[in-house]
Amino acid sequence: MANNTNLGAAKAAKNDEFYTQYADIQKEVNAYLEYNPDTFRDKTVLLPCDDPEWSNFTRFFAQNFERLGLKRLISTSYAVESKKYKNYQPSLFETESPLFDADKTRIKGKIFELTHDTNQNGRIDIDDLEWHYLEGDGDFRSREVCKLRDEADIIVTNPPFSLFREFVAWCLNANKALLIIGNLNAITYKEIFPCIKDNRLWLGATGFMNDMVFAVPKGTDVDPKDKAKAAKLGYVGDYTRLGNSCWFTNMEHGRRHESLNLMTMKDNLRYSKRKKIRERGYIQYENYDAIDIPYVDSIPSDYDGAMGVPTTFLDKYCPEQFELIGFAEGDSGKELGLKPYPRELKKLNKSLRDGQLYYIDEDGIPQKPYARILIRKKQ
Q1: Phi, psi of 317 (to 5 degrees)
Q2: Which carries the bigger pLDDT value, residue 105 or residue 21?
Q3: Separation between Cα atoms, residue 312 and residue 120, nearest integer Å
Q4: Most distant pair of Cα atoms in the chain: their distance
Q5: CA 209/CA 247 separation, integer angstroms
Q6: What is the pTM of this model?
Q7: According to a count of CB atoms within 10 Å of the terminal CB, is the N or C end of the chain lower?
Q8: H or E element that contains 47
Q9: Order of strands across the sheet with 306-310?
């Protein structure tokens, strides 16, 4: 997929300059407010990896400070010289401040805080932000940003793709609520899936497998197809579209407790809209006691055994309805007890790997389904 390639290239190049759109932030945050209007009330929100000159996260939370009932908003930015992208021009917001220092601004991070009505115009919003330089470059792993993390209740941002695993650990190890954007493939990471399985992390309320548009620095190499798709969605210029992005959180939203409405196995075999299910039925794996489910909507409601489902299942996962057994891939699959494949099958399918599920198709050829999560219906 083009968007997978784009994300992979970004990670490989450590090009982490993707700027989230205001509308996407608003849509996601509103989902939590619908579930609980007091989600952010009296909370300190930290936006690391942000900068008001670029970041819509800071704009959104500053402009909605009073509506959300925030106690404190903290935003930290990363120093220009510490980034891969260094073509930076300071804004008037910064240069017109008596705090501005042309040398410091390239090597020091900045902290922006919002707590009260500084200009005394009767409301608290983005015009009341106060800022100063940090002692270091603003890296979220630095001692001073870790201290800010410890003071915060909720951490919200689009963290660097190349540091996603480390960033999630940085939040969860400090027992913080988080709401962040990541690549859907992150659910397969050995550091991330156990957090999902243990109910410490789950997918957000919006944006799953939908096109999310991100602004990028001027001159960034963008796939023409992604640029055209962004333009079609109304974003013309230095934008790209990443269809494999989603939100990750450990904050409650009502959608994750909505059970899937499923048919019985008998009804699926007779009436499923999936021709493959009607014609071939449910295939048993050769190396694990489970059946293969190629489509989420084909999960039988009355099957009590283990099932291998696509990773997209996690967007529909209701913890009251299903148990996550594990991720059947590589070392994780081996730990689950997937039996090694007989080596003579390699000549029939060179892609076979130990730790992955496989079944024998109608022609006697071993087939390996794409990344499966093993689940079981809760009784």
Answers
A1: -65, 125
A2: 21
A3: 49
A4: 78
A5: 10
A6: 0.87
A7: C
A8: strand 44-47
A9: 290-292, 306-310, 372-377, 322-328
